[in-house]
Amino acid sequence: MPYSCKAYSATSATSPLAATTISRREPTASDVQIDILYCGVCHSDLHFARNEWHFTQYPAVPGHEIVGRVTAIGSGVRKFKVGDLVGVGCFVDSCRTCPDCRIGLEQYCPEMVMTYGSTDKHLNAPTVGGYSAGIVVTEDFVLRMPANLSPSAAAPLLCAGITTYSPLRHWKVGPGQKVGIVGLGGLGHMGVKFARAFGAHVVLFTTSPGKAADALRLGAHEVVFSKDEAQMAAHANSFDFILDTVAATHDINAYFNLLKRDANLVLLGAPGKPLPVAPFPLIFRRRSFSGSLVGGLPETQEMLDFCGKHNITSDVEMIRMDQINEAYERMLKSDVKYRFVIDMASLKT
Ligand code: NAP
Ligand code: ZN
Ligand code: ZN
Predict the structure, then answer these.
(1) With DSSP H G I counted as helix, E B as strand and the rest as coil, what are the percentages for the chain, rounded to 5?
(2) Residues forming beta bridges with residue 243, ordered by sequence position
(3) 119-120 and 125-126 as β-strands: parallel, antiparallel, unpaired?
């Protein structure tokens, strides 16, 4: 028997999010039931709530940066006990047998079940995310949160953290390399922190001149105002690697020109409209343009443990659940310092 739970949902692409009630499945033998304490607000939540990716089913409940406490476990659960502080990120299941799943890259599994916007096989209904009082997830897709980190500031690690950590690790970013991070929002500020922690020379590109001091405080060595052509030109052909976290359509070609020969730009931002690519900046210096999706379960746990060891969390602004629509408007104005996190106690009272 499913049980009901308080949540916030959008009922159409143009309606604000509002209070609602959702169904969660009763925990099966392998499930963990979680009381959600905090949920980060990712720009993907906004893209999804407003159907900018054209697959949203309504009512839509976003949220995939979830931290909470285990309140019940199924009879077969071995990894967690009641009371544990746990995290849930962008996906809650996968096939577990395909080549991607077998090497811990569940995010690339053709049957990956997203935390919201997929189908819950147990309820045969759309999955609904972390803007809710609780969630039920199979234990293999639940992460352990480091005890020394603030649970609210650690919530954004579940998406913004792993999404930047994974490509920086995959492309072996480290000492002696000049690395660019484009956009100082939720992903961007974590990208700056990780690139710095991995020993690279970090350059932050921003369209917001007012963020320069914060960028340096967060770990950037240099800040470039990307609308200034002279500042951009001064960095031509000099980067080993660039991570682009911009949530809107923008001129990506300007960044290809900043890469060295054979260097790579990884796109993380997922605007609803295509980005025009000019051939020559890629062709003439054999540059690469690629993408990356969050990170698999083993790497997400590795990232959380790395953050625990090095005391890395997100810089957060706490909000109440009923401030979510205001938070979305601020996110659209690039006015987030640097991740909104919902205190889920505000939904439960
Ligand atoms: P965010 O907090 O809103 O940050 C995006 C930043 O991009 C802004 O703070 C701003 O930085 C810059 N920006 C925004 N509009 C711009 C424009 N028109 N031109 C140039 N720069 C602009 O968003 P987020 O949560 O970090 O997410 C960023 C994107 O990544 C979203 O599209 C999201 O869906 C996507 N995403 C992808 C993955 C993945 O696995 N690949 C995972 C999570 C999120 P400045 O003020 O510094 O310019
Ligand atoms: Zn996200
Ligand atoms: Zn699979």
Answers:
(1) 30, 30, 40
(2) 181, 266
(3) antiparallel
Q: Whose CA is closest to atom 36 on ligand 1? A: 269
Q: Separation of 288 CA from ligand 1 center, angstroms? A: 21
Closest atom of ligand 1 relative to the 43 alpha carbon: 25
Q: Distance between CA 278 and CA 289 in Å, rounded?
A: 11
Protein residue with least CA distance to atom 31, ligand 1? 247
- Check residue 349 and give its pLDDT: 85
Q: Which of ligand 1's atoms lies nearest the C-alpha of 46?
A: 34
Give the integer Cα–Cα distance in Å for 254 and 139: 44
Which residue pairs from 329-333 have beta carbons closer than 8 angstroms and sit at least 24 positions apart in sequence? 331/41, 331/43, 331/46, 331/185, 331/247, 332/46
Q: What is the pLDDT of residues 60-105, one digit of tens each?
A: 999 999 999 999 999 999 999 999 999 999 999 999 999 999 999 9
Whether 92 contacts 63, CB under 8 Å: no
Structure tokens at 203: 């350059």
- Measured CA to CA, the distance from residue 284 to residue 293 in angstroms comes to 28
Q: CA-to-CA distance for 185 and 170, rounded, in angstroms?
A: 22
CB 271 within 8 A of CB 280: no
Considering only CA atoms, give the Rg of the chain.
20
